[in-house]
Amino acid sequence: MRPIGVFDSGVGGLTVVAALRRRLPRESIVYLGDTARLPYGTKSAATVARYTASNVEFLLDRDVRAVVVACNTASALALDTLEAPVPLWGVVEPGADLAARTSRGRVGIVATESTIASGAYSRALLARRDDLEIVAQSCPLFVPLVEEGWCDDPITRQIAERYLEPLLAAEIDTLVLGCTHYPLLAPLLQEIVGPEIRLVDSAEAVAEVVARELEPEAASGSPGVAAHRLFVTDGAARFERLADWILGERGTPLELVDVASAERR
Amino acid sequence: MRPIGVFDSGVGGLTVVAALRRRLPRESIVYLGDTARLPYGTKSAATVARYTASNVEFLLDRDVRAVVVACNTASALALDTLEAPVPLWGVVEPGADLAARTSRGRVGIVATESTIASGAYSRALLARRDDLEIVAQSCPLFVPLVEEGWCDDPITRQIAERYLEPLLAAEIDTLVLGCTHYPLLAPLLQEIVGPEIRLVDSAEAVAEVVARELEPEAASGSPGVAAHRLFVTDGAARFERLADWILGERGTPLELVDVASAERR
Prior knowledge:
The structure is a homodimer. Chain A is of the alpha/beta class. The first copy, chain A, contains 13 helices and ten strands.
């Protein structure tokens, strides 16, 4: 059975893979982490679009039957520039959709610098509900803090409190986690904002949409066992450590590839 | 007059440019910040070597008469793999040299994950003085903190205190700042370690070596005015903001280039 293709700039998109595996346990998944060129969140739209196109091309070469752009920055900056002969989802629209359906009127967004600067979440939210008040905050330190493994740490708490302060002052009722690394900070963020504010995890939101929309005959699956592959563009050890943690398993084999060459074809 | 070429993965190497300008005010400098592929400090040796080679090639195409690898990670992981028809310096050897000459016996090193993992500083220090005791500490959050502009901040202080704790416990007398971003944290780090511990700034150290070793006829310079150029591989706004701050000037014009294509020739 043809696999679902998923890519992110790094390891964060594995939160989408974990969510997809829970919902579609018999689907095979091919993952590409573009670790040689990460992070995308501080780069320009043109560069992110170029990287995104080569990643999608790499996945299509692996004969995927659907593509999930599991990177908020790439979804925000480059989804409109993509053409693919298979169904293709980004994480911004599903996250915005869930937030717009459940918010009581005031939505906060946390994401990388580039995702916030793109305005993609605000546009997607307002297209669904023009009555929403929106407060957006870039949190450039969250990804390095997660990658350092400081997800439950007093220093991370202080940084999060500083980033979230204007959102709490604006009395948001919903907080969109607009980066696939951020679900790993969800317990800490929920503690800071309190139980009344609903966290919307864009990784969970896109997995829900894929599970619902993926063509039925394949979703029901063959009796075969799902086969997963993890590709990375750089073989740094930190990816393995974080991948095991996110996927809850040990020693996931990584395959090293060069997608930048595809870009030059 | 032919310029000196300097490159770093991003904006940090401009601390080397600033040091070179102070020592060699009449030299023209061509700088390349490989912002499309930064950071190097969490990537593998093979990837860093590939990126480094394409950056040097780009500078040689600009007819530079010397190259400074102003990136500690590239210096640590890739300097041995480079061949260039002009003088070429990395930042590790000058930094290690200065530390070995001045230490009373116990040297601490702070740098990125990849630089520390390479062991390049320890090897360079022990090659000069095999009596040295060395404690190395990777500080993955320092670069994002500097890029966030939190150089003088209580949160940065707590993070630095945590990173430096094992070095202070080992009673170091010298601390090597093994990343070109770190000089921007020097005042804070000096406060934490106290006045008795000497900070060795590898950016200053390499500028001193270049000023001393660069062939004399050019070092004395023509009566012309130095002309500087700044190239980047990605045009994100944060580079400009940080560049102005490090160089102490406003609106340095940036030129956008694509060096990845050079890699494929």
